[in-house]
Queue: 3 jobs
Job 1
Amino acid sequence: MVDTWQLVVFWALFAMMGVSALRVVTSSNVVHAALYLVVTLMGAAALYVLLLAEFVAWVQVLVYVGAIIVLMLFGLMLTRAPIGKGMFDNDQRLVAAVTAGALFGVTTWIIVDAFEGQKITLSKATGIRAESIGDVIFSSFVLPFEVISMLLLAALIGAVVIARRD
Amino acid sequence: MPEGGTYFGQYVTIGIFALVGVVLVLGTLQLAKLVAPNVPDTDKYTTYESGIDPIGSGWAQSNVRYYIFALLFVVFDVEAVFLFPWAIVFERFGTQAFVEMVIFIGILAIALLYAAKKKVLEWQ
Amino acid sequence: MPITYLLILSSMLFSIGVYGVLARQNAVLILLSIELMLNAVNINLVAFSAMFGAEGVAGQVFALFIIAVAAAEVGVGLAIVILIFRNRSNVDVDEMSLMKW
């Protein structure tokens, strides 16, 4: 019963994320493209909830939807992108479509070949709480964790140097 | 970890609330569209500039200072995300977790000090 | 739920991101497409984490790290785009060919 509903919700999210991701790369309005990205990211967050990864789901909402998209919209405002319709595609759209299609075909073939028949048993799976994530970060992944702060420091200093008006 | 039923049951409740919220907003807007008289006119779509005809486009260049503030927000948002699991395991890990987080926050504090030193935090 | 479904969703998002990077001209839109690709990777990691159950914590930790790295990447990337805009007053990547051999 739960399994069937999970599949129904999954396919609904699949359709939603596919359509909105396509709109991100084809929309002729830059602000609409950013807002369609919000739909895709929220779909991913719902997918994480479905996969019992609650903490990652809410981090996705907090950081991606709450912060990164805001940064993107600031970037759009600062670069004076025309708000109305405009041409933002270059002339290699056909090549790009063929490349992306070929990539999708090859990866799908490899995925089906390698993982066919392997299942995620969600109803029985023990979900991962923030506690076990904290256990792992602060024992096994201490170095990457500190490196993240160095990376953020470098990003902020770089952005201040680049974007500051002298 | 909660059993499948209750875990998903709670999210179904959230989903129903979200759905009701969306339907309420969209329904009201559609209702307004149905009831309101529709007289399309290109003048209605122009930017309102205190009564005189608008010059140029409605797009204004934002100050780059806003970007620095948005970036500071992103950096400390990421920091806050790592504070949640830290707070949960803090009691068990004790000094070790404390030192790790002091280093993390210390490095990010350097970023804040740098921004303050470069006077991007001041608004002239 | 078969894991192939999730992996195919992830590869679809990644391919759409590749299309966006190749076909877009506006640098900010290219950054949006890169976000799509990073998100596809995260879906992969969380899917495998769910497959391994309680042993799959590392997958979710890596997803968190990737989200943090994405934040840093967008910060620097947009700063560069803003600088380019200030110098050339547009952000068309096709016209930034000065360093092309």
Job 2
Amino acid sequence: MLKKKIISLDRSTNVDIFIKRPDKYREIENFSLNTDNLITMGGCNSYTPASFKRNNLSLLFTKFDRIINFDKMNKTITVEAGIKLSNLLNFTLKENLWLPQIPGYPSITLGGAVAANTHGKSSDTHGTIRNQIKSILIFHKTHGWMNLSDKENKSIFDLTIGGFGLTGTIVNVELELIEITGCNFTTTVEKVTSAKDAIEKLNKRDLTNLFSYTWNKTYNKKRFGEGLIFNNKINENEKNLPIDKMQFKNKNLDRHFALNLWNKFSIKFFQNLYYNYFTIYKNKNNNDNFENVLFPYAGKESYFRMYGKKGFIESQLLVPLNKVDIFLDELEHLVNTHEPDIVLFSIKKIVGKELFLRFENTGVCFTFDFSKNKKNLNFLDKLDILCIKYRLKPSIIKDSRLDSSTIKKCYNDFENFKKDLSDFDNKNIYRSELSDRIGI
Amino acid sequence: MNYLIVGASSGLGRDLAYTLSENLHDLVLISRDKRDLDAMKSDLENKYKTKVNSYVVDLASKDSVISFLDYNEIKLSKIDGVLFPIGMMSENDSITQIKDGVDQITNANFLSIVKFLEKIIPIFKEKQKGTIVGFGSIASSLGREKNMIYSASKRALNSYFESLSATFITSNINIQFYILGYLDTNLAFDKKLILPKASTEQLAKKIFKNMDKNNIKEYYPGWWGLISYFISLIPFFIIKKLFKFIK
């Protein structure tokens, strides 16, 4: 069996794994049955090591990328879980349909998106991908083939969505698609004077905008969170034009620069450059294409490489609406005290319901990117304390630092998830570095 | 045009199906597992709007092949070309371990193809045209301790296609034979190989481009032809020494 060195995208974990790539249904069965522990791997684009574990088997699922059924009338599609989200959209957009809960990189697979219960930029309208899932077919080493839906094996269906692939291999997924009237966007950029101002503007956003999210500066103590709010709406003038097939080159995401290029000077320089580009150079209203809006990281992989060999940490926090003000006050105080180097800071709203380990609730989603150094790690420890204090949800799929104790205190359903999973699979057959770290 | 792909559900067969469908050809797909065939049929029909028929046949079983051929003569009569991207290997393919597997490997890699062509060639003769594409392996260049039945079957297939070329040299029936080196298929995915694996997608495109040409015998990737040529020049007494050295 092929042993391969693999590194997580955030560069937190570097291990040897065994890897097999089934391309026939019987191979899913054979490969799974002939090993003790395994996990399924899609695009391997998670920041954290969710699709592999040291010396364990990863089933690379990229050959399972076919459309099993498409019902245009009822707007449903059944697709194999290894399909890249960009390829899924290439098909559905031709039919004026789409899946809105799309994370920011095109080679992320549908199975990965289901296992992480992803949300997209329209998270305040469409919530997480859970809302589009009608049914799932999984293969489990001991339970065999299982159909999961609200009507069949509901408890396992619930465990599987946002279950990090621990209930078995997600083989195909039936999705309910949503109509989309055009594939080109008009982007409006507006200034915000602080993080609180950003949230106020997000609350009052024009509902004809499909996406609204912010980008905030981080180095200015006096005006913490000053920045921009981006609103994307369908371009009415180019409404009915069919989309060109999106083509993305395979980028080697595990490359990095020799040194970490993000420090307080470069952060200040790039943040000013970005801010001035949008406030001075660019028009207030711009036309944008689908790829640029949906997949902002595609073609900008250097952003990750600039963190150097040690990599980066992304902390994504879900703050309930009634705690946003107090959280921002405490955050500002923490930032002023510890002066972390925050490379990226962004805010968007999200709707949903809490269950198990899903990063889902109704509230505001804050995203911060950091380089890995003592000062930033110390700040992140303080942020964890804040999460525990206000019971905020830190995203498990984004942050490789999070340990079991923090997650237990932030996720009300942690023990329920663990128990239900153990009732289903008491041998913990499906395991990853992530599941080991958080103690499942 | 209407093409039959025998061994269609994975590797090169799968890429051939996509290349032909993308170019709006209808397909008849044959493979062992209904689940794989159903997934391919649905995907091809949804993406390219071509017509795809699929049949479950176990190519390692003589009975399964004969039964399919006996009951589907009418469907075969509509075929304009046939491709055999089949390759069955076994971990136990060595003199001491092979036992019951000999028939299966020989059937899948050689005899089933002969059986198919017994039925298809008269149809092509009657139409006075058709394309037959077979696939050999670089493994057949030299006898070996592992994969011995596989390499022997592929050598037999090579000889059989040479005979087909000789038979149809002046006719409109195109005989094509590709001798394949390492390809990026599941047979090679988890193996550490000294030489690089070639893309099955690129090969499928090349085969499609060559579809109207007669009497093709090519190595893919091309440099395997050079390696094979040098192997053929080595006298057997040196090969014997090489075998001893490897042992």
Job 3
Amino acid sequence: MRLSELQKNVPATVAGVVDAVADDAIARRLRELGFVAGEPVRIVALAPFGGDPLLVQIGSTRFALRRSEAARVTVADADGAGA
Amino acid sequence: MSTLQIALVGNPNSGKTALFNRLTGAHQKVANYAGVTIERKEGHYTAPSGRRVRVLDLPGTYSLDAASPDEAITRDVCLGRHPGEPVPDLIVCVVDATNLRLHLRFVLELKALGRPLILALNMIDAAERRGIAVDVEALSRELGIAVVPTVAVRRHGAQALIDRVDAQALPAPQAHPVADLHAEVRRILAAAVSSARDSAATDQAIDRIVLHPVIGLVILAALMFVIFQAVFAWATPLMDGIEAGFGALGEALGALLPDGVLRSLLVDGIVAGVGGVLVFLPQILILFVFILVLEESGYLPRAAFLLDRLMLRVGLTGRSFIPLLSSFACAIPGIMATRSIADPRDRLTTILIAPLMTCSARLPVYTLLIAAFIPQRAVAGVFNLQGIVLFALYVAGIVSAMAVAWVIKRLRRDRSEHALMMELPSYRWPHARDIAIGLWERAMIFLKRVGGIILALTVLLWFLSSFPAPPDGAAGPAIQYSLAGRIGRLLEVVFAPLGFNWQICIALVPGLAAREVAVASLATVYALSGNEDGLSAIVATQWSLATALSLLAWYVFAPMCLSTLATVRRETNSWRQVWIMAGYLFALAYLASLLTYQIARWLT
């Protein structure tokens, strides 16, 4: 599942970040920001006007990500099942 | 002994600049959002051993793989590639103790450089309050570098760092490559950090309300509205006091001095001109109280989050919000703040529309005209009609900016994805001391402008308006025969369709250098024309409503501010952008004033 498809306040675990284009700078920065396999992640808020961007909490850090950015992050359920 | 060179490096919003200020006694701007520092800043202090230490404060970055112009500065200094900047003898990596999971990754990246490195574990007090226990010795052992706890915002909060830097041995860490930085971070966290409970609970509770899709927007709108109401309503008594003071000073000087050139220069030129601008100090300070509190609290990135979608639709990004909000104070810091926008297209659009945000230098013009033409009466019991008009003028600027951004977006060929990826910091109580320092500095900037460029231009304008003297037996006030009078008449040809009289045309010229001077100039011009009344009374009786509205419309766009254009040239490194900006602003200003004047005249 992609992070952009995750429901609000449902805990999940990052599986990885997928490059959307070749040499994807956005994907690289996401990895640097800590979106790496095994990290707990959760969507804590949706912006007005169509729920984009998302407010994503990873550890105790919160990032505003656009849906297109969050779509690069793959997640699994918090217990590790169903990637 | 040679000077020791140290550089403060770390993630955005980890408190590097607060630490820099604590070490060097400087007053660099600090606030609670990522990307406050956009340039390298240098300072000095003397260590207890007597050694001189040169401290470099660098923009925050998440990685040495820089994504924006400000991050590139930090990368270049750390790698010794920055022209004119030696490789630092010691890198002090500043981390936020409440956010180690994110910040330690960058520490490991710096450690891999193999240069002398120590870790300043900042905000250790906040970590304790949140129930995060950091074992400093274990952290130091696992990282293989010295770790010193600091509280940059507290007196003596950097003492441990000063002592450690002063210790002679500063060994470089073993730079053995780490395959997976995140796995290493997790290992170190497990060994050195324990968190009792969900450390972000307070932030989450506040965010549930502040970021709510409906309530959040209502709060944002209400906040903005209250600011404009306050700027008008709270400042009035103070402004009346300053105005009365300068009136009395002018009269006293007038009575003391013999009639002649000196009296004219002092009373009509300096007192009328400088007093006309100084009166706006209370409004500017009230505006800044709000801006500073918002900056310190951590609310601004939240506002950016709420507005990102709307801004994206017109071709901007939520990240444009903070530079644009700074532009309400002055477009120059606003344009410089765009350096934290990674996408060059977003950055250029933000720069081009920044001057449409109503800067504080326009406030005097607005206030003068509103006070003269808009009755002071309550609307719906609580709102002040003048405050509502002021709010509407600010909104007009914002709406035009959105429209311009939209046009730029349509004209652009490159439609590839724009990035947001913005960190939302923890909320923080603003420190009264920081707010006070911020206000004091803002007041000093304003007073220096008044004492410097505004005073100089006022004197110059008085000179141009007084000479050459009228021929013998001339009818009408002397100013009509002066150089300024002739220039005004010449410009009037161009601006007559907008309803501007020759006095306004004169005032527009020095307004190029500083917009506030337009008001000072009007005061001087009318004082020299033999009017004894205050400027507000003159404007109310001698101008038509259509002219006043037209001038307000002109100042919504106010194309002419030379320092802004110079900043655009420096930031974009292109004259083309400067001409585009000046051209489109002038065209919009002329068009808006023309329409306003003709329609208002037709209606009244």
